Amino acid sequence: MAWEPTDLEQQRLQKLDRLRSAGIDPFPHRVERTHTAAEAVSALAETGQDKGPAVVVCGRLRSLRTMGKIAFGHIEDGSGRVQLFFRANEIGSPTIKSLEQHFDLGDFVQAGGEMIYTRTGEPSVLVQSFKILAKSLSPLPIVKEHEVDGQLVRHSAFSDVEERYRQRYADLASNPDVRDVFRTRARVISALRRFMDNEGFLEVETPILQPIYGGAAAQPFTTRHNQLRQDLYLRISFELYLKRLLVGMYDRVYEIGRDFRNEGVSFKHNPEFTQLEFYAAYIDYHEVMNLTEQMVASVAEQVAGQSIIQYQGHTINLAPPWKRVSLRQSILERTGIDYVECPTPESLAAAMRETGHQPSPKSSWGKLVDSLLGTHVEPHLIQPTFIVDYPRDISPLAKTKPGDPTHVERFEFFIAGMEMGNAFTEINDPLDQEQRFQEMGRLYDPDAEDAHPMDDDYLRAMRYGMPPCGGFGTGVDRLVMLFTNRRSIREVLLFPHLRSREQQ
RNA sequence: GGGCCGGUAGCUCAGCGGAAGAGCUCCGGACUUUUAAUCCGGGAGUCGUGGGUUCGAAUCCCACCCGGCCCUCCA
Length: 504
Fold this sequence. Notes:
Elements: H1 7-21, H2 37-47, E1 51-67, E2 70-77, E3 80-87, H3 88-91, H4 93-102, E4 108-117, E5 123-134, E6 144-148, E7 151-155, H5 161-166, H6 168-174, H7 176-198, E8 202-203, E9 209-210, E10 222-225, E11 230-234, H8 239-247, E12 252-260, E13 272-281, H9 285-304, E14 308-311, E15 314-317, E16 323-326, H10 327-335, H11 345-354, H12 365-377, E17 385-391, E18 400-401, E19 404-415, E20 418-425, H13 430-443, H14 456-463, E21 469-475, H15 476-484
Parallel strand pairs: 3-5, 8-12, 16-17
Antiparallel strand pairs: 1-2, 1-4, 2-3, 4-5, 6-7, 9-11, 10-11, 12-13, 13-21, 14-15, 17-19, 18-19, 19-20, 20-21
Helix pairs in contact: 6-7, 7-9, 7-15, 10-12, 11-12, 13-14
This protein binds one RNA strand through helix 1, strand 1, strand 2, strand 3 and strand 6.
């Protein structure tokens, strides 16, 4: 939609004209910065004197208090803030007047002068030169801050959730705590990468555009290559490609990247989200559990400096070893239902109805078990917990437990009542895998939206021989939620998906 | 897909059937050590959108749009 300037924006456009009439370029090409805001402040402190070196600092004008022949302001750059002190003695009354006439909060400016302490002891640039670097035409939300008993109190913070997400640039520009969230996010991801690299994993990249999707039960996004006249899917997981690489004789591979699932959105689901998956030859799911708890604890150490974190009022200890409990036992403890004694969908649904459930009549046995987990167990798993050994019929890629054809060697891990990841001892018998794909086809209605397509190329790869291996996937965004103490996945995505508005 | 709550000035919000308001922002003025600067004066709005009820609607009713929360869904 075309821009229709508001009154405030009209005023700023007029100031822009005034600058140009005065022969000033409101968007100059070059700057002469010598110090960041933080460097300027520490440069003064390092002198040990009450006057420091001459500096030129650049940044966004955050506050401006003009009082006749003097003025105070703050500018902010990526390093922090520094106060500007204007005095007619140094810079002349016309310049102080021009602060009011030409400048607005939000403008990028450059200020040069000597570092001094003001009467209240605040390190400040005693401004001797001053100029615009970039005019801000639209006013950012004004956030005022002051200290009360050492506590920073903020006024009129930009807090409308919808506008914060739609205009994340404005959110970031006015809310420093939001900037910190994404710094932490970056540190979580590099900590994960560092851990995987140190454990001998090779980072790889596999196709996002896939002719056959797989590795998870989710509806895909579809797209099309015009020139090849080929329908394609955006991947819902990396799994089947990463395991092909084990056939290709990489012992340990991992990928951090984006998955796309065409499903509902919620405080823990976004249509595109970041996943870490790894696959390692010659280990089983027990060893994957060891790696998992070490990985998360390592991220905690690197990001929070300790393994104990605070999340939404809970104190969570991420230090290994984590509790390991079977899915059967965990459901029995919470519901009194031993699903092994209800081996058919009908008998399990009956048992569930006795305890006040209304199970969906079309659900498979495994889906019923999974819903018991999600409803009765998952919300209680605040401390990190591995739930181990899942029903076979909801785990088409996991190896069956020796001596127990109804269960597979699979675990999910939970922290703060959220499912954080999923892993198993991988099927490496191509004939078994083919049969499992076919079983999935039978168990799920072929028209079902989450039916699992057969991936013949994946089976071909496996027929060349795949080493025994363990695989793992985790939702990186949810890990970031944990380490930033955010309740919604949208708070840890820079640009979360929102429905578009007609008028934008 | 269902339920509840919300959308009023640039920002944060009040008003909930009888002349659209407050604080901050903004504009004009005063002020040579301020920091939510202060003081004086002045602007600023399709009250989410479209219908309806009414003498009169930001306010009541209906539909729709967008968001939040909770369900549903999500191996």
